[in-house]
Write a structure and sequence with these properties.
The complex is a heterotrimer of chains A (339), B (254) and C (289).
Chain A (H helix, E strand, L loop, with lengths): L2 H27 E2 L2 E2 L1 H9 L3 H34 L11 H18 L6 H30 L6 H25 L3 H10 L7 H20 L1 H7 L3 H6 L4 H23 L5 H12 L4 H25 L8 H22 L1
Antiparallel strand pairs in A: 1-2
Helix pairs in contact in A: 1-3, 1-13, 2-3, 3-8, 3-11, 3-12, 3-13, 4-5, 4-6, 4-7, 5-6, 5-11, 8-11, 8-13, 12-13, 13-14
Chain B lengths: L4 E10 L2 E10 L3 E6 L6 H9 L6 E6 L2 E2 L5 H7 E4 L11 H6 L3 H4 L7 H13 L15 H14 L4 E5 L7 H14 L4 E5 L3 H4 L4 E6 L2 E6 L4 H10 L4 E6 L2 E6 L3
Parallel strand pairs in B: 3-8, 3-9, 6-7, 7-8
Antiparallel strand pairs in B: 1-2, 1-4, 4-5, 9-10, 11-12
Helix pairs in contact in B: 5-6
Chain C lengths: L1 H19 L1 E4 L5 E4 L6 E3 L2 H9 L6 E3 L24 H6 L4 E4 L5 H7 L4 E3 L5 H14 L3 H21 L8 E7 L3 E2 L5 H8 L3 E2 L13 H7 L3 E5 H6 L10 H4 L3 E4 L1 H7 L6 H13 L6
Parallel strand pairs in C: 3-4, 3-5, 5-6, 7-9, 7-10, 10-11
Antiparallel strand pairs in C: 1-2, 7-8
Helix pairs in contact in C: 5-6, 6-12
Classes of the chains: A mainly alpha (339), B alpha/beta (254), C alpha/beta (289).
Chain lengths: 339, 254, 289
């Protein structure tokens, strides 16, 4: 690679590392009285220190980073797979599937009286919101693959994803009509929240990153070949359907994991690859990993802001990612117009 | 006569219409050009022979075996393909794009060797895009982009080179350089290109003239029958004239 | 002579007609004029449904929102959606004389533009509820019923207050409204009820009536008593850091099933019963060592 590219990568790498460190410290210091180092130090010396910082702030900070990393990775995979800079991780029905899972669990109690047995309702409720969201996301993607009859054609996949999204959304709406108590929980899920990420969530998401990142990275050459066009990529001996299926699998895993822990957080998956391309454009092997790191920083920043801006009240983190991400896109557009 | 790649009774239907009807073609060593009017099925023919087009009937044989029996990578190492309109996008650099040509040999995981790097360099030199290896695809002009994609096809180092309209966007000096390159490559490999440009096509070793989904005529460029066929398929909008020891195609304004 | 007489009679009738008009100010500050007491009423909020029924207007209800479920007789009425997705066409087809709604419902403008009269009643504080009851009393032309309803609430609250153990006075409550978490602050009607019962709140008034909290705040605030829906209460120890809450460890908490929880969070005529429900639980709380 050229000297310029090497330097760009170094700059981005250092920038991300510094930001991550600073935000991690900020995350430990941001609490219900805003962002305050003296108060945090006082807290650490007091009796609550281990509890608040160690059990609440630390895992939440790490969890926000991991969630962002999963979403950033998924976004880069989606944009490479569909060769579209506007693609986001939720395209293949994972979002609507997760929402449906959540709604079914929330409504399980109410549905017990109406057609499904008490035992089934009990079983569903025991799976819990996290499990249901994850299973729902995977189911949504599976349905999309089934509808598109495998990953043979990208346009068919996209269309199937849209159809599945609309269908599952309609089913969710039906369920919330019958069981309106599920509405509030559904809306909270749609906004996303990093509020309750504990060490358990972090462990699960770390596993998700450990599985999805290497898989996607190994297959990154396929995404590079895809930039030549589908026919050219096929002519290079790449069995596109199989590779696409594997990529979709990585996408579903990463998205499902992130969404099940923190709800549908917008923009992180969309914007992270753009930021990487802006500062250090490269082949997909690098872009995938850098998008994960960038997504982590982005969501962590949003989480710290969500906690600090109106303490002890908390803003929905999805609003902040939209502001940060959307703001960046607006700035990009502005630059393009004036340049 | 090497029949490394041959089509047997190939028919292709696209969107309900028969684009190729029962076409058979055995490729010869050297540089073959497929010419014909728009809609004759030239690109479809080339894609079918590259194994990129599902067939309604017939088969394509590579070294005697049907294409479908070949594992994807093995086939890709035998046949290099250049697509018609660059539908290439993105931020890859020139060098990274040309390196993709080594994929059939390396697969997704293996690291390139010194020999691979040498082949990449050779391909870039041959296609005249070695001066700016780190520029990105979306910063290049149409002609520069075309040369990069051609280099990618050359980097595959395959015995069969199938090129769909390789001279698009190229200005005359580069077109001529390309023709020289083809003639050189054609000494050891089989090069097949679809061309719109009849004067360039007349420099090839062998012409395949297609019309309406079939082959109207085949032959060397100095064959009178080929000249007649050329003029006929183009509705006599051109006429072929001798010019020293070469042939020229001139617009027929009569 | 005849014409003059008719003129006098007319002149008399006009002010009488005006006297027969019902004029109400709703919580938007808008004035509503109705020619007579409405016979067909639509309510779009469960607490407003309960208020109308408590004041004897249940027969006049022709439709409610989907969440209204008390008293039992309203279950058979047409359900017209929620505040966000009210079924405009259906509401209009029921030809109500007046529609009762909460503020900032999207549907209000639409209904008014279609010629319907909408009475907007806020229900955030006790004062709101009292004012709402009196307004509805005026609407139904039964102000005495409004008086009686409010007195019942007051009496029930006073009675509940006596049952709250002295030892609990001043202890701080965390009342969770939603698992996001949203809490009921001192400024909300729930907070006011708790204050009447002699309890404090970890959420002070300047945070608003229903703030969305950083979960850390609750842990640091160390509430003495936790009140929530039973299902949320069961999940609380699983939240990071919440298992350290003394109130949870020592079961100084009040969990309510869906039906009773709904009663607690309805700012309507059953607020007195809500206070009594709270007092029942508080009286049984284990000692705080």
């Amino acid at each position: 690679m050229s000297e310029a590219e090497r330097q760009a990568r170094r700059r981005l790498g250092i920038g991300l590392a510094v930001l991550t460190l600073l935000l991690a410290l900020a995350g430990l210091a941001a609490g219900s009285e805003g962002w305050s180092i003296p108060q945090t130090l006082a807290l650490l010396h007091g009796p609550d220190g281990g509890l608040v910082v160690g059990q609440i702030r630390a895992p939440r900070t790490l969890g926000a980073w991991l969630t962002g990393a999963l979403l950033g990775l998924a976004g880069a995979v989606a944009q490479g797979l569909f060769r579209n800079p506007l693609a986001d991780p939720y395209l293949l029905g994972s979002a609507s599937g997760a929402v449906l899972g959540v709604v079914l669990v929330l409504a399980a109690g109410m549905l017990a009286g109406q057609g499904i047995s008490l035992a089934t309702a009990g079983a569903v409720a025991r799976i819990g919101l996290v499990g249901a969201a994850f299973a729902g996301a995977l189911l949504g993607v599976t349905l999309t693959l089934a509808l598109a009859r495998g990953a043979h054609e990208t346009t068919r996949l996209l269309l199937a994803g849209v159809v599945v999204g609309v269908l599952l959304g309609a089913v969710s709406d039906l369920v919330t009509n019958v069981a309106p108590d599920a509405l509030r929980g559904k809306q909270a899920f749609l906004l996303g929240s990093t509020g309750f990420l504990g060490w358990g969530s972090c462990a699960l998401m770390a596993v998700g990153v450990a599985m999805a990142l290497p898989l996607a990275w190994r297959l990154s050459r396929m995404l590079d070949a895809l930039t030549l066009g589908e026919e050219s990529a096929a002519s290079l001996g790449i069995t596109l359907p199989h590779m696409r299926m594997a990529m979709v699998g990585a996408l579903a895993l990463a998205t499902g994991m992130a969404v099940s822990q923190a709800g549908l957080i917008a923009f992180v998956g969309l914007v992270s690859p753009h930021l990487v391309r802006r500062f250090a454009p490269a082949a997909h092997g690098y872009t995938l990993v850098a998008s994960a790191a960038t997504g982590g920083v982005l969501l962590l920043a949003a989480d710290v802001l969500a906690r600090s801006l109106m303490a002890p009240q908390e803003l929905p983190v999805g609003v902040l990612t939209a502001v940060l991400g959307g703001g960046y896109l607006l700035w990009l557009l502005h630059r393009r117009k004036t340049s | 006569m090497s029949t490394a790649l041959q089509a047997e009774n190939v028919s292709v239907s696209l969107g309900g219409a028969m684009v190729l009807r029962d076409v058979s073609l055995a490729l010869r060593p050297g540089w073959t050009v497929i010419v014909g009017p728009n809609g004759a099925g030239k690109s479809t023919m080339l894609r079918s022979m590259a194994g990129l087009q599902p067939l309604a009937a017939g088969r394509v044989l590579l070294q005697g075996r049907p294409l479908g029996d070949w594992p994807a990578r093995a086939r890709a190492q035998q046949i290099a393909w250049l697509a018609q309109q660059g539908s290439a996008t993105g931020e890859l650099t020139v060098r990274q794009i040309v390196q993709l040509g080594r994929l059939p040999k390396l697969g997704l995981f293996a690291e390139p060797t010194a020999q691979d790097e040498a082949l990449v360099q050779q391909a870039m030199v041959a296609a005249e895009c070695d001066a700016w290896p780190h520029r990105r695809l979306n910063e290049l002009s149409g002609g520069e982009r075309q040369r990069v994609l051609l280099a990618r096809a050359l980097a595959v180092d395959a015995p069969l080179l199938l090129l769909d309209e390789p001279t698009t966007h190229l200005d005359p000096p580069h077109q001529v350089a390309l023709v020289r390159l083809f003639k050189r490559l054609a000494r050891e490999r089989t090069v097949v290109s679809v061309l719109h440009d009849v004067p360039l096509a007349l420099q090839a070793d062998w012409l395949v003239i297609m019309q309406a989904g079939g082959i109207a005529a085949m032959g060397p460029p100095d064959d009178l029958a080929v000249h007649h066929a050329l003029a006929a398929v183009f509705d006599h909008a051109i006429r072929i004239e001798r010019f020293g020891d070469r042939y020229m195609a001139l617009p027929n304004l009569d | 002579m005849n014409a003059r007489r008719w003129l006098w009679i007319l002149l008399f009738c006009l002010p009488l007609q005006a006297l027969a008009d019902i004029r109400l100010r709703d919580d938007r500050g808008a004035t509503l004029v109705l020619p007579r007491s409405p016979q067909r009423i639509v309510t779009l909020l469960p607490s407003l449904t309960e208020s109308v029924c408590a004041l004897g207007g249940c027969d006049r209800l022709v439709g409610t929102d989907r969440f209204s479920n008390s008293p039992a007789r309203v279950l058979s009425l047409p359900k017209l959606g929620g505040l966000e997705d009210a079924q405009v066409e259906r509401i209009v087809s029921l030809k109500p004389d007046v529609v009762l709604a909460a503020p900032s419902a999207r549907v209000i403008d639409r209904l008014e533009s279609l010629g319907l009269k909408v009475l907007v009643l806020d229900t955030k504080t006790h004062a709101d509820v009292k004012r709402g009851l009196y307004t509805i009393g005026q609407l139904l032309e039964s102000p005495d019923a409004a008086n009686a309803a409010w007195s019942r609430i007051e009496a029930a609250m006073a009675e509940a207050t006596t049952r709250v153990p002295q030892a609990l006075r001043g202890q701080r409550v965390y009342f969770e409204v939603d698992s996001t978490p949203y809490a009921a602050g001192a400024g909300s009607f729930i907070g006011e009820t708790l204050a009447r019962l002699g309890l404090g709140n970890i959420i002070t008034p300047e945070l608003g009536p229903f703030p969305r909290l950083n979960p850390e705040f609750v842990v640091k605030a160390r509430p003495d008593i936790v009140i929530a829906a039973q299902s949320n209460l069961d999940d609380m120890p699983k939240r990071p850091g919440w298992d350290a809450l003394a109130a949870l460890q020592r079961h100084r908490s009040c969990g309510f099933d869906v039906e009773h929880y709904e009663l607690l969070i309805r700012p309507g005529p059953r607020m007195g019963e809500a206070a009594q429900l709270l007092a029942d639980c508080l009286a049984k709380l284990p000692e705080q060592r």
